[in-house]
Structures are given as structure tokens and as C-alpha cells.
UniProtKB/TrEMBL annotation:
This protein's name: Carbohydrate kinase
Keyword Transferase (UniProt): yes
Keyword Metal-binding: no
GO molecular function: kinase activity
Organism in which the protein naturally occurs: Mediterraneibacter hominis
InterPro entries for this protein: Carboh/pur_kinase_PfkB_CS, PfkB_dom, Ribokinase-like
Residue span, Carbohydrate kinase PfkB domain: 3-287
Keywords attached to this entry: Kinase, Transferase
Any one annotated GO CC term: cytosol
Length: 301
């Protein structure tokens, strides 16, 4: 069995600050955190770290950041047999300003210029496919050749590529931003009728299973009895929310790999994401499966 994580990899440089950014000011940086980043890479690292056979389908260049990411993937045991052969690309990287007071982050992402690539779909079959929508054409090719795989879309924002992928997967796990951009409506948990209407609109995208994540407010899902439900988030003191969504999706893909029920999977993924925001960095904040199990036992979540 194997998990394919398709999409963006990046190298993250996170700078923690203790005050708001102000224009025309100089900030002296004495500490910063460097680590892997990008939705697909973060998810792949989690799945491999937790013991699943995992392949990353992503673009990583031959430059300094690319070499660091490839070394990291080897360390985690993530397969790189099916990386997208765009060797001329400048490896994507992000500069992230993280504010410890409220865990907010401002991200400056440098995605690199992608070349048109003739990608050969791997002969190896995937059991679970997770795509962040950054490589829609390649994702759709792999989905077509893996009809028995369970597929998930990590839909962070409503982009054309992400929407194309979202329509074809078994599980659409989208952010509140995606839901707002698609429906034009803001989710207010105090207006439950409106929440149900928004959720039903999101479900219509793929006609299968949808989940809408709401950050510190939890998430929306439909239970086995057909009822739309709200699952509260774990209450923790967040330090840096970078990569929290990526880590949630990685844990969710792992849960599918382990055949967890939807609710059990959502609970485990929520705890995993909550643990991650208590550390600086994205990939560097991925908790071990043992940490997640201990946290769940302690909090009875």
C-alpha cells in the first residue's frame, strides 16, 4: 500500500516577531527557523514519518534549497522516484513572518516558474492520493490511472487548478477561505441554517464527501446519519500556524490509508494539527504518531 502526495514543495524560512509589522521600519532578526514546507511535502513527510509508504510527486530544483529538501525527504523516508522532472525550476521557497502573540503569519511565497513537462504516470499503483491542486494536469492523469485509489483534495484557496481537482476526488477537504470564495458567504456558526446551506453547496462540488476546516473554530462534516455536524477544535496555545492545514491533510490521508472512520479520522487529524501549531515552522512541527496518541488519551478527544 502507498500514499501519493501531489503538489507543491517549498523551503520555508520563518522569522518569529513579537510585534506587528510596520512599514518603513527596520527589524533586527536574531533567530529564525529553516525547514521544509509546501502542502504536498509537509503531508508526505507526515505520512512517511508515521510509517506509511509514501511517494512525493512535486517539482524540486537542483539549487541549494532543492538539495536541502531532497536530503530531508531521504531522512524522512519519502519516496522521490516520481518527482516531476523540471530540473530547471528554482525550488519554491517562502519567507514567513510569524507573530508569537497571536500565532498569525504573513507569507511571502516564491513559487518558481514551472515549465511544461511531459509527465509519465508511475506504473506503481497508489492506494491513497492527496493533491493540493498545484499540479492539476498531473493529478488528473494519476487519478485516471488509479481508479481504485481513495483520493483527497487539499483545497486551500479557490484556484482554477484546485477546483478541477476538487471535482474529481472522493474527499474534498477545504478551508474556510475556499468555502467563502466559492459560495460568496461567510461561515457564522451562530447561524446554523446558513452553515448547512454553505456546506451543502461545497458538497455539490464533488458529489461525494466534503469537510470544511475552520481553524481554531473546528470543522464541519456530515456524519453517518446524514446530519451536518460541527467538530470543535482542540484548544491549545498556538505559537505558529504555518503548515497547520498541510499537516491536517497529511494526517487525514494517513487515516484513509489506515481505514479509519470519517469521525475518527477527523479527530486524529485535528489533534495532529493542534499539536503542530505549538511549535515554530511547518515540516519541523509535525508531531509523531505517538505524541498524537498520548494527546488524545490525555484530552479524551
Amino acid at each position: 500500500m502507498s500514499i501519493f502526495c501531489i503538489g507543491q514543495s517549498a523551503y520555508d524560512i520563518t522569522v518569529p516577531i513579537d510585534r506587528p509589522l510596520i512599514e518603513n521600519q527596520k527589524y533586527r532578526v536574531e533567530t529564525f527557523k529553516e525547514c521544509g514546507g509546501g502542502p504536498a511535502l509537509n503531508a508526505a513527510c507526515l505520512c512517511a514519518m508515521w510509517g506509511a509508504k509514501t511517494q512525493l510527486v512535486s517539482r524540486i530544483g537542483k539549487d541549494k534549497y532543492g538539495n536541502k529538501l531532497k536530503a530531508l525527504l531521504r531522512e524522512y523516508g519519502v519516496g522521490t522516484d516520481y518527482l516531476i522532472p523540471d530540473e530547471e525550476i528554482d525550488t519554491p521557497y517562502s519567507l514567513i513572518v510569524s507573530r508569537a502573540e497571536n500565532a498569525s503569519r504573513t507569507i511571502f511565497n516564491f513559487p518558481g516558474v514551472k515549465a511544461d513537462i511531459q509527465y509519465t504516470v508511475p506504473k506503481e499503483k497508489a492506494d491513497v492520493i492527496l493533491s493540493d491542486g498545484h499540479e492539476p494536469d498531473i493529478t488528473l492523469k494519476i487519478l485516471k490511472e488509479n481508479t481504485n485509489a481513495v483520493s483527497v483534495a487539499d483545497a486551500g484557496t479557490l484556484r482554477e487548478g484546485t477546483f478541477r481537482v476538487a471535482q474529481k476526488v472522493d474527499y474534498l477537504v477545504c478551508s474556510e477561505d475556499f468555502a467563502k470564495q466559492y459560495t460568496g458567504k461567510t461561515i457564522n456558526l451562530k447561524d446554523w441554517k446558513a452553515c448547512q446551506e454553505i456546506f451543502t453547496q461545497i458538497e455539490a462540488v464533488n458529489q461525494k464527501t466534503a469537510v470544511v476546516t475552520l481553524g481554531e473554530r473546528g470543522l464541519l462534516y456530515r456524519n453517518e446519519n446524514g446530519e451536518i455536524c460541527h467538530l470543535p477544535a482542540c484548544q491549545v496555545q498556538a505559537v505558529d500556524t504555518s503548515g497547520a492545514g498541510d499537516i491536517f491533510h497529511g494526517a487525514f490521508a494517513y487515516g484513509l490509508y489506515k481505514n479509519l472512520s470519517l469521525l475518527e479520522n477527523l479527530k486524529q487529524s485535528s489533534v495532529t494539527s493542534a499539536l503542530s501549531v505549538q511549535k515554530i515552522g511547518s515540516q519541523a512541527a509535525i508531531p509523531s504518531l505517538e505524541e498524537v496518541i498520548r494527546a488524545r488519551i490525555g484530552n479524551k478527544f
